[in-house]
Amino acid sequence: MGPLTTVGVRTGRATEGTMRGLALAVAVILGAMGLASCTPPGFTGYPTPSKVGTPAGWVAKRTVNGSINVTRPGTVLQDIRVNGDVNIKADRVVIRRARIVGRVWTQWPSGSRLRQFSVTVADSVLGDPSGRLDAHTGEGTIGPGKYTIRRSELYGSDGFRVSKPQDGSRNNVLIEHNFFRSTKPSCDQGLHLDGVQGYFGGQNVTIFHNTIVTQSPCGVTGAIFFADMSESATVYDNLLVADGYVLRIQDDHNPDRGPWVIMRNRIVSTGFGPVASTETQCGAKSMHWADNRLVTVDSHFNIRSLGRRVSC
Q: For residue 30, is it within any domain?
C-alpha cells in the first residue's frame, strides 16, 4: 500500500448525529482514502511489541558503535544495529529489520535552507526503552518529514515529529502499524511528551492504525498533538493512551487549512481529558470527525469495552 493522501477528501461535515448519517460519512471517507483493507494479513488488534519491530529471533549482521550519515541515494540498511543516530542525507533510503538506539532524522542544512530527505523504515526498533536518551529524542525519535514508517517499535521523549519542508513541498509522512511508548523522564528535565507532534506540519500526513502510549508523572502533552500552524492530517483507527489531553488538534489558521480527517480512534484518557481542539473550527468543511470513542484496554492493549463517542 502506498502513501495515503488527504487532499481532495470533501464529504461534508461529519457530526455526532444519527447513526445512519455517521455510517454513511464513514463509508464515503474510507472508500475515498482506501483505508478499509490496509491492515497487514494475519495482523489482529492494535500493534504491540510482540507484533511489530524486528522479527522473533532477529540477530544483527553488523553493528555500528556511534551515529552514521547516509549520503548515497537509494542506500539500504538491513539487519543492522546502530548504537547511535541514523542521519538521512540522501533520498530513497530504506531501513528494514534494524535496531537503532538513537533517532532517525531527515532534515539537514543545504545552502541557506534546511532540506528534508526521504526514507522508508520497516520492521525495526528505534529509540531506547531505558530512557537514557530522553533529551536527545525531545524533537522526535523519527522526523520531521518525507518518511514512511511501518510495523516498527519506538521509544523516546517524543515519537513522530511532523514539520513541513522549508521549500513549501508536501510533508509526505505515512505512519502506520507502529507501537510507540514514551519513556518517563525526570520531572526536572522540562520535557513535553508527545506521541505525534505536528510542529508547522504540512500536507499529506497520515497516521493509521498505531498504538501510541504517552504516560508519565509529568510533562505529557498528548498522544497526538498538532499545533504551531500545522495544516492538515488524517488520523484514523489508532489506539491512543495518554495523560494530558489525549487527542489535540489545534489549527491556528483562520480559516482552518485542513482537511483534518479524525476518525475511528480509540482513546484511553488517564489525564485531563480525551480531546482538546483549541482554535479549531470543528463544524467547518475542513474537519471530518467521526466515531472517536473512549475505551478500556487490558495489559496487552486489547480493547475490553467500548465507551461513549467524544466530540471535537
A: no
Instruction: Find out whether 288 and 262 touch, Cβ atoms under 8 Å.
Output: yes
Indicate whether 217 belongs to any domain.
yes
Structural domain includes residue 31: no
Which pLDDT value is given to residue 254? 87
Grouping H, G, I as helix, E, B as strand and the rest as coil, residue 22 is helix
Domain count, the chain: 1
d(CA 222, CA 276): 10
Is residue 258 a part of any domain in this protein? yes
Domain membership of residue 72 as a residue range: 41-309
Tell me what pLDDT residue 242 has. 93
Sites in the chain below the pLDDT cut of 70: 1-42, 133-135, 185-191
Tell me how far apart the alpha carbons of residues 240 and 266 are, in angstroms, rounded to a whole number: 6
Please report, in angstroms and rounded to a whole number, the separation of the first and last CA atoms in the chain.
29
Cβ-proximal residues to 35 (8 Å cutoff; 6+ apart), any chain: 4, 208, 236, 237
Length of the chain equals: 312
Give the CA count within 13 Å in the CB-facing half-sphere of 111: 5
Which are the contacts of 18, defined by CB distance < 8 A and separation ≥ 6? none
57 vs 147: CA distance, rounded Å = 27
Pairwise CA distance, residues 81 & 63, whole Å? 5
Coil, strand or helix: which one is 100? strand
Closest CA to 179 of 156, 145, 205: 156
Task: Show the cell assigned to 183.
Answer: 519513556
